[in-house]
């Protein structure tokens, strides 16, 4: 934890109001998110009834990279996350910018996808409204809550996380009831798709399952707003990941045991199939839970994106106006407006199918950078205690990131390359404008250099 000589926490322009329980729920809500409500179907297509195995492998992979975040967040507790760590470790603004831009691209695109999900079939159960306009209005409401304050956003997250966890636990309970009355087939838990080996199903499924665990990295961007971050952050991070992992594993066990894997993979709402098989619970009720999960994921993702933009502006990697803070609320208002506007554009114009896969690729590149940064920054000693990961852990995490990257398809590499190329152009333009401004300031004071030399 960053401290002054007197032992007090270092000052920050942001409001340090996030407690340990709020941080735990922030991470848990972001990890669980909306993806799990469609995850089981995708995993069933890849791993058959052995959904639980790639989920378990992905949990271990996520915990490895989480250890690197725990070390870096408690060592350098400031907004900006992975981009700040890259800047400290590699000392090259271009690398730092690309890492931060990858996070921004992934986060804003995820929010756009979640907004479309909110305006889609789940809401269609209740209202017949066009998806894109609804999604844009939804993003505006999320931005308003984000701008109101981190504490208010965390409180909203607390309620929504409780509801979405309750929905997943409801699936587990209903699945247990189905199995308890003799229906379903637990033997399916060891079945694989025809012509698929256990290794291929596990590795391919782990890539999908890993997406369900991403979200924990966003917590690094609220480090300046956490009280007693050195003590609180590792506990909240590992506790939330393990809790999410247990819930995922339970869902991954009951779903294919209750509903045939081929039926799960054919459904766009696979968990609804479990609810339908159990009976007794209105499907509309579960649709409400799914909508809340989507809204919570979008809120937390936009909190991350705005704080990341703020932190990068503080580091001089993005234009300075993005670091402006709303006076009374002490929230990064310009960053919130800009990231929301970009998400709205993606919502209206983006092809979200391929963008979703590209999000995973971009985040793996970010994780690779962060795990490398831990090892590089071991030589940088700070004057306060912090969490320290066992050295083989980030090394193993690097290996897992490289392994998952090899599973990406060529078109996703091409799309990610195009996004990063756009980031390079933006960075060069920003740097050029900064240099031009500096030159103008020097030109406006021509005698300054002469006076200094004399």
From TrEMBL:
Per UniProt, which keywords does this protein have? Cell membrane, Membrane, Transmembrane, Transmembrane helix
Q: Which residues cross the membrane?
A: 21-40, 52-73, 94-116, 122-145, 157-178, 198-216, 237-261, 281-303, 333-353, 359-377, 389-406, 412-429
Which top-level group of life is the source organism from?
Answer: Bacteria
Q: What GO cellular component term, any one, is given?
A: plasma membrane
Where is the protein localized? Answer: Cell membrane
Pfam families referenced in this protein's UniProt entry, alphabetically: AA_permease_2
Q: Which GO terms describe its molecular function?
A: transmembrane transporter activity
Membrane-topology annotation of the record: Multi-pass membrane protein
InterPro entries of this UniProt entry?
A: AA/rel_permease1, APC_superfamily
Q: Classify the main location.
A: membrane
Matching PANTHER family, A to Z? AMINO ACID TRANSPORTER-RELATED, MEMBRANE PROTEIN
The name this protein carries in UniProt is: APC family permease
Q: What does UniProt list as this organism's lineage?
A: Bacteria, Bacillati, Actinomycetota, Actinomycetes, Micrococcales
